[in-house]
Amino acid sequence: MFQGCNFHCRYCHVPDTLGNCNGCGVCAYHCPAGALKLEAPGTAPQWIEENCTGCGACTNACRKDSSPKIRRMSIKDVLDHVMEHRRYIRGITCSGGECTLYPEFMTELFPLIRRQKLSCLIETNGTLNFDRHRDLMDCCDGVMLDIKAADPERHRELTGRDNAAVFKSAAALARMGKLLEIRTLVTRADYGARETVEKAAEILAPWPGKSDIAYRLIPFRVFGVRREYRGLGTPSRKFMEELRTLALACGFSKVIVS
């Protein structure tokens, strides 16, 4: 999981991955377990993992949507960590935050992982120009892409960003045969879920492999979401099943309601 994101989604379930620490030290003053140590003004606190109780006081206090519990890892560090668990996994998935803010890192890492007969997947908001990163796509086994809202204004309201790049990525990844799954998180607040399913089908219509691309419909849950956005609401099971039926009618054969 990579730190930092170029979206600012209202319903983000890991808001402490959105920003980067500015060394303000507020989190250390709120830690009840003495798990954060301030070493110098303006630098990130030292996280003492063995003292940490996982209470969340530090991330709740953070003004930057960040976390003092990040680890700065080299390619070798990540590879060594993966190899510790080699017997128990079939591959790795890079997510975030937004992992495609670090394409060069993944392009260097993935070939080393694949030499161990492990797969390499990406979860993304779709803002990277994948056509300009063919070297990354050559060593990536597949991509799970979020399509959050079809209407540009609703998308901006939800994420703070336009969605044109997302649609371009969906088409590019489908053309390359790298698009494994589309994901849409559905709230009770109306961000046009039906229109989003129909737009995804329209974008992928030219590609013969469309029926092999899974569509995952995810009902909103409040766990982890910032307090001010928890009122977006969980949609009814009935509505989720209506979306599933719509996605099937639009030509998706693998529709998952999770």
Write a concise keyword list for the protein shown above.
8 strands, TIM Barrel, 258 residues, 2 domains, 9 helices, alpha/beta, Alpha-Beta Plaits, globular, 32% helix, two-stranded antiparallel ribbon
What is the class of the largest domain in the CATH system? Alpha Beta
* Radius of gyration, in angstroms, nearest whole number: 20 Å
Largest sheet composition:
6 strands, parallel
How much of the polypeptide forms β-strand, as a percent range? 5-15%
In the CATH scheme, what's the topology name of the largest domain? TIM Barrel
Could you say which overall geometry the principal axes of the C-alpha atoms support? globular
CATH superfamily of the largest domain: Aldolase class I
Number of domains: 2
Number of strands: 8
Please identify the structural class as seen in this structure: alpha/beta
Strand order of the largest sheet: 3-4-5-6-7-8
Count of helices?
9
User: Distance between the terminal alpha carbons, to the nearest Å?
Assistant: 21 Å
Which oligomeric state applies? single chain
Helix proportion: 25-40%
Order of helices and strands: HEEHHEHEHEHHEHEHE
The CATH architecture of the largest domain would be Alpha-Beta Barrel
Average pLDDT for all residues: 94
Poorly predicted segments: none
